[in-house]
Structures are given as structure tokens and as C-alpha cells.
């Protein structure tokens, strides 16, 4: 008997290779997942200009960041933006300036599609081989109210669905780049659905009851590994796991000969691992 609902995740037509370089841009959930890659020796770049919650701010990072690896994750948090009244520009960070200087707005589905299209096109221009993975952060926003938070996530989900599955329905004002972005491999990883449906229990939330717990992030990481890791990349994780545990071990007697011998053997294995995987980043 099955006591939970499992989100079906079709495998994409690409695989992440061992120690492959990856770019993560988006909400603080991008930091969480990017951190799991970093902990496992992948040379990742995560939010090089700070956390970006909405599609407009994600575009701003993509426009500024020149180096585009083969794999890029874009993690959307909200459709809410803040516009500086004086200039009318959408800002990425209010920098603790008075709230009266800004006007809060909500991007429509079409707005989100347009910003994401532009970001994807910039990525394509800089690396024609780019594979873009879109995901929605499962973190809820209490300040919008829980219903408002759900509406925000729904807007992002509908924008992603339109980009991936219904490009022909995109409004004409953004259609000038449809013929380019529609040929770019876009993929969806259901972080939001995994937490909402598979981990539908408050024990998988942090103490604020809004952010996923470390255990929940670990589970989403495991589903991501299943989703798009090559067999070679999975083998790297298997080889690294006992070394990672050994290096994290806190001995009662660190000066003992037995522990020194244990660490010597561990460091020798780590050296061998680095030789086998030249891009291993630990």
C-alpha cells in the first residue's frame, strides 16, 4: 500500500556529467540546491550577484554574467517586483532604502514569459549548447498571505508551462524571439510539487514552517540526481560519500596513532579521487 503521492519526473534528454560546471540563478532555494552540488565537488556558480527572486531580476543577472556553462538552473521564487519610483526600473535589491521610494507590483504570466525568454536567449547567444532547467522554489511567502503566495507560484508555473509546452500561444509582442528560444532545450524540475505533494507533512519544514528543512532539501536533491545525473556522475557521488563522512568525523582522540593512520588513508583516497576527476572542486 502506498501512503504518499509520488511526483512523476520524466528524464530529460541530457545528463549532468561528473564535476560538470553549472550555473544557478534565482531564489534562495537555488542557494540550497547549488550548495548540494558544491558539497559533492561540482564547480558551481550560485547567484553571482546575489539572490534573485523574480524573472526580471534573473534576467538582470544573466545579462551581467558573461560565462555560460552547458547546464543552467533558473529557480523562480515570486512574480512580485519592486520598481524604483524615481526611475521606473525594477530593482534587484532595495538595499535597505525607505519603502516609500519603491512601488510593489506583480508580473503577469506574459511578463514572466517575456523576461524568461530574454534570459534564455542571452544564454543561447553565449553558449549555443546550453541546457536550461527551470524550477519553482517551494518556499512560501507569508507576507503575501498564503493565498497570495499560491497565486504567485501559480503565475510562475503557468509561465514555465507556456514556455516549454505552448510557445505558439505566447503573445505577439514577445514573438520576435520565439523562433530562437523555442529551439533551446528547456526542462522543468518540480521542486515545488515534490515538497507540496510527496513531502506533505510539517516535519519536512524548518522552524518557520515556510522553508523546507535540511531533510527535505536532501530528498529533493536525491530526486534531482535521479532526474538528470549520468551513471558516471552517480558513481562519483558513491565514491565521494565515504570520504566526505570520514572527513567530517570528529574523533575523541585526534592525536592517537589509529586516527592518524585513518586520516592518512583517507587523504590518499582523496588524492586518487582528484586524479580520477580532474574538475573535482574539493
Unreliable residue stretches: 173-179
Question: Tally the helices: what do you get?
Answer: 9
Q: What is the end-to-end distance?
A: 42 Å
Which structural category fits the helices and strands?
A: alpha/beta
What share of residues are in beta strands?
Answer: 5-15%
Mean pLDDT: 92
Measured on Cα atoms, how large is the radius of gyration? 21 Å
**Major sheet:** 5 strands, parallel
Instruction: Give, in spatial order, the strands making up the sheet with the most strands.
Output: 2-1-3-7-8
State the order of secondary-structure elements, H for helix, E for strand. EHEHEEEEHEHHEHHHH
* Fraction in helix: 40-55%
**How many beta-strand segments?**
8
Shape call: globular
Give a verbal description of the structure:
This protein has 9 helices and 8 strands. It has helices at 28-39, 55-64, 109-126, 146-165, 178-181, 191-198, 214-228, 231-248, 257-276; strands at residues 22-26, 44-46, 71-76, 80-84, 90-91, 102-106, 131-136, 186-188. Strand 4 and strand 5 (90-91) form a beta hairpin. Mean pLDDT is 92; it is low at 173-179.
Amino acid at each position: 500500500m502506498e501512503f504518499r503521492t509520488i511526483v512523476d519526473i520524466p528524464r530529460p534528454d541530457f545528463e549532468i556529467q561528473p564535476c560538470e560546471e553549472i550555473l544557478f540563478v534565482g531564489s534562495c532555494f537555488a542557494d540550497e540546491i547549488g550548495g548540494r552540488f558544491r558539497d559533492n565537488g561540482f564547480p558551481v556558480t550560485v547567484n553571482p550577484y546575489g539572490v534573485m527572486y523574480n524573472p526580471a531580476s534573473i534576467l538582470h543577472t544573466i545579462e551581467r554574467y558573461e560565462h555560460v556553462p552547458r547546464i543552467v538552473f533558473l529557480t523562480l521564487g515570486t512574480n512580485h517586483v519592486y520598481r524604483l519610483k524615481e526611475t521606473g526600473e525594477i530593482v534587484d535589491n532595495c538595499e535597505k532604502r525607505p519603502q516609500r521610494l519603491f512601488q510593489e507590483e506583480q508580473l503577469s504570466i506574459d511578463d514572466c514569459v517575456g523576461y524568461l525568454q530574454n534570459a534564455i536567449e542571452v544564454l543561447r547567444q553565449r553558449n549555443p549548447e546550453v541546457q536550461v532547467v527551470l524550477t519553482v522554489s517551494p518556499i512560501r511567502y507569508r507576507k503575501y498571505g498564503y493565498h497570495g503566495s499560491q497565486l504567485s507560484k501559480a503565475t510562475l508555473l503557468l509561465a514555465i508551462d507556456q514556455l516549454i509546452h505552448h510557445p505558439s500561444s505566447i503573445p505577439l509582442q514577445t514573438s520576435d524571439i520565439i523562433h530562437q528560444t523555442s529551439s533551446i532545450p528547456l526542462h522543468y524540475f518540480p521542486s515545488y510539487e515534490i515538497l507540496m505533494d510527496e513531502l506533505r507533512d510539517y516535519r519536512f519544514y524548518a522552524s518557520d514552517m515556510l522553508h523546507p528543512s535540511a531533510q527535505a532539501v536532501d530528498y529533493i536533491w536525491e530526486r534531482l540526481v535521479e532526474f538528470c545525473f549520468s551513471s558516471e556522475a552517480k558513481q562519483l557521488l558513491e565514491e565521494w560519500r565515504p570520504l566526505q563522512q570520514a572527513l567530517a568525523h570528529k574523533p575523541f582522540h585526534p592525536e592517537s596513532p589509529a586516527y592518524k593512520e585513518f586520516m592518512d588513508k583517507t587523504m590518499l583516497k582523496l588524492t586518487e579521487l582528484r586524479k580520477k576527476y580532474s574538475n573535482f572542486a574539493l
